[in-house]
Amino acid sequence: MLAYTYIKPGLFCLTEKPKPALLHPTDAVVRVTLASICASDLHIRAGSVPRAVPGITVGHEMVGVVESVGNAVRTVRPGDRVCVNVETFCGECYFCRRGYVNNCTHSEGGWSLGCRIDGGQAEYVRVPLADTGLCRIPDGVSDRAALFAGDILATGFWAARITPVTPEDTVLVIGAGPTGICTLLCVSRMNPRHLIVCEQDPGRLAFVREHYPQVQAVLPETCRELAVQVSGHGGADAVFEVAGGKDTFTLAWQCARPNATVTVVALYEEPQVLPLPQMYGKNLTFRTGGVDGCDCAEILRLIADSQLDTTPLITHTFPLDQIDRAYELFTSRRDGVMKIAVRMPDSSCREYGEGCL
What we know:
By secondary structure, this protein is of the alpha/beta class. It has helices at residues 39-45, 94-97, 130-133, 143-146, 152-161, 178-188, 202-211, 220-231, 248-255, 276-279, 296-304, 323-332, and strands at 2-8, 11-16, 28-36, 61-69, 81-84, 124-127, 134-136, 170-174, 194-198, 216-218, 236-241, 256-264, 285-287, 314-319, 339-343.
């Protein structure tokens, strides 16, 4: 099968690999129908994810059809359309029982797919712990509608779930990239009084203004002033930092009112500074960490009920044999790109392209 492979820091290549097989009774093999590229994949290529293993197939955003299951799998069966969770988790360890599935202590728990084991930018993927790692896609929900339920939409849902937000609040989302938009969608369901999105990219600001006209979209230089003005009490009640830029962590705590919550969703490539002397007296609560992706079934239910819709994020579609081009476009942010859907080839009639990026 064709698979996009992490060769070494700075290099991904399209390679041929054997079709994956079941290794454990709790495994499933999924025929991938649609995948996507995540900013985390770019972090792997840049060499800034030390636990990423050279030689693995990258990709952790995917949907597909169950091909085969181990004899211990109970929740899915061959032929089921499924969304693959970004995390694999046992559901039984100390952390899983408390909903902290990102910290699952199983040997293949946490973020494994596309990082420590082969992921889904390929025709097939083996999913460990399939009973918790796969969710059936409801009838009537398309692959495109379900594509982000296991990763960036789960991230936005997790961020909103761990952050106290009331209908009286002013909420600020820093970053209008794909994960920022997913966070915006999930926070919107909490009906805050004011919702502000801060973004420096003109194209992404325009995307917010076109698709979410009820949101106040601003540049970083005017963000703090607006948060203070509309809240009436010194800044935003809740801040979601989803940008991961050079100065966005500082902007996040500066825009927060005293006693606010700052939830850090972004993945940084460099250490951030917590200037406690400057922050003294603000009494901020910080919430950080990787997504606990245990809400996939609930997210798919909300998609089926038309309460969440991320399909506008899919601005481009490429076949797998042109994934180098897709990565180049995604990295450059040209042509209004937000997210790219990667189609898998028809295994009965396919032509492979070769390349590296």
